[in-house]
Every structure is written in C-alpha cells, then in structure tokens.
Amino acid sequence: MPKAADWNIGDELPVMKTEPLTRHALALYCGASGDHNPIHVDYDYAKEAGLDDVIAHGMLSMGYLGKMLTNWIPQKQIRSYQARFTAMTHIGETVCCSGRIANKWEEGGKWMAKIELFADTPQAQTIIGEAEVFLN
Amino acid sequence: MIDKNLIGYSFEPVQLAVEVGRLKFVAKALGLTDPVYSDAEKARAEGYSDLLAPPTFPFMLESDAFELDRLCDFFEQNVRRLLHAEQKFTYHQPICAGDQITFVKTIREIFEKKNGQLEFVVSDNTLTNQHDILCVESQTTYVFRNA
Questions:
Q1: Residue B26: which of A32, A37, A49 has the nearest Cβ?
Q2: Residue B53 maps to which CATH number?
Q3: Residue in A closest to B94 by C-alpha
C-alpha cells in the first residue's frame, strides 16, 4: 500500500500487463459484465458490421486498468475514475496498463493525487484515463 | 439524427440486486485476485458488508438496466453503429453483494461531430442503495457512427 509521503508528481505506478486476449476472455466478460453486444463475441456479426474480427469491450480494458489501480491502492481510496476509449483492442493483443502521478495536493487533512492512466496494446493507445485517489 | 428534445429526459428508475454469484463471476472475468472481490469473510474483515463490487461494476448494472438493443431503439439508432466513447465514475459509498441499487439515468447531452458523421449521447447516472445512500455517480458517453 502506498504511503503518501513516498509518492510524488511524475512517479509511475507498477505496470500491469495482461496475457494476450482470447475469445474465451471476451466470452467470460460478455457474460459477467452484462454487456451482450455481439460485436465482442460473434465473428459473423463483427464481419457484417464491417470489422475483420470481434473486438474487446472497452470496459474490459477499463476493468484491467482498474485492477492495476487497486493492486496499487485499496479501492476505498479511489474517489473518481474515468476513461476515454481511443482505439479498438483485438484478439491476441496484450493490454498494458500504466499510470503516473500527475498532481498531488492536500485537502481536508488528506493527501490526494491525480493519476493519469493509460491502456496500450502493441498497436495503439486504447484508453486515456484519469483517477483521483486519496494517498492516505 | 437523434432527437435533441431528449436532452434532460430521465428513464424510469430501475431496481437491481447485487448478487454474490455475479460478483464472483466478474472477479473471474477480470482476473481480480484480491479476496475482497471473491471471499465474503475477507471482505467483511476489510469493513465491507459483503463482497465488494469492483470499480467498473456500476457500468455492468447499467448494462443490466438498459439493454443496448432497447436503448438503440429508443434513440432510433442501429446498435451496429454504437461505440462506447467515454466512461466516468465518482465513488461515494462502496457497492457490495446484497445491496439493492436504484439506477437512474438522465440524458445530459446529445451532440454531433464531423458534420453529423458522429452523434454523441451523454447520460448522467446515479446509483443509490437500499438505505437511500448515493453510492456512485457515473457518466456514460456513447457514439453512433453514421458514416
């Protein structure tokens, strides 16, 4: 668990890299998440929609990025978390989740930090995100 | 073109039960290894009432409450043209297994980019628990690709 004094602007959070995404992983996420859009699991549907293959849920990558964050800090210390989906994630790609401290300030006796968050596949940056966390 | 008169429209509130099995399934799908997401005893030891719902779970409740097909029909749009553009969460109170969440969705903005090739729908959502405590505020942005 991070100690407020140990973390400063510019510091990088421990990176988390997933295994290459499988169709099975997308099927599990489809069922678990309740997002049943066939574009994520049905090859024929994806082809008809003009894609080469199914694509991963943006929220799956946001979930992985959230896991990277909660590996670093307990969830109760996250005040806000947001993501902008900037590119598609494809089957077989790894998702590399990273973050860095963009700002740090004191508020009501607590240390807060703004974390810039990124999800990257080998091909593209797929999420640009941000979280505000309590450091203590 | 999506009817801009829908800006400000609130859907009927939807009641959703947060189930243990669902949270375990989510923990599996996301590979969450912290036991607060899968072991009720460990979650209680951390001060939670039961299994903790992970940070992106509020969107899963949104998916339950507003199925994409029906949502697209509502906006008179084709689900094949739908993409999730942006997602925001502000956390006030943990959501745990056993909670009964009331999900309220209100349309905040409808706007176009690239001469109408992209149409954005932004909604503000609140998730309130059975004790009338606001747990999470979220904002969901969908984009429809018309080109």
A1: A32
A2: 3.10.129.10
A3: A76
Q: Per the CB < 8 Å rule, is B86 touching A82? A: yes
State the residue range of the domain holding B8: 4-145
Question: What CATH number does the domain located at A4-134 have?
Answer: 3.10.129.10
Instruction: List chain A residues with CB under 8 Å of B84.
Output: 57-59, 85
**CB burial string B120-135: b at 16+ within 10 A, e below:** bbbbbbbbbbeeeeeb
- Interface of A to B at Cβ within 8 Å reads 18, 25, 28-29, 31-37, 39, 48-49, 57-60, 62-64, 66-67, 69-71, 74-76, 78-85
Q: How many domains does chain B have?
A: 1
Domain locations along chain A: 4-134
CB contact under 8 A, A66 and B55: yes
Which residue in this structure is represented by tokens 């606001």?
B134
Chain B positions touching A82 (Cβ under 8 A) are 86-89, 139
Mean pLDDT score, A43-49: 94
Q: What predicted TM-score, i.e. pTM, was given to this entire model? A: 0.97
Q: What is the mean pLDDT of residues A54-69?
A: 98
- The CA distance from B79 to B71, in Å, is 9
Report CA-CA distances (Å) from B94 to A90, A99, A131: 32, 23, 16
Instruction: Give me the sign of the Cα torsion angle A112, B85, B11, B27.
Output: negative
Q: Strand, helix or coil at B50?
A: coil
Q: Spell out the per-residue pLDDT of chain B, length 147, in tens.
A: 899 999 999 999 999 999 999 999 999 999 999 999 999 999 999 999 999 999 999 999 999 999 999 999 999 999 989 999 999 999 999 999 999 999 999 999 999 999 989 999 999 999 999 999 999 999 999 999 986
* Interface contact B56-A75, CB threshold 8 A: no
Are B91 and A60 inside 8 Å of each other by CB? no
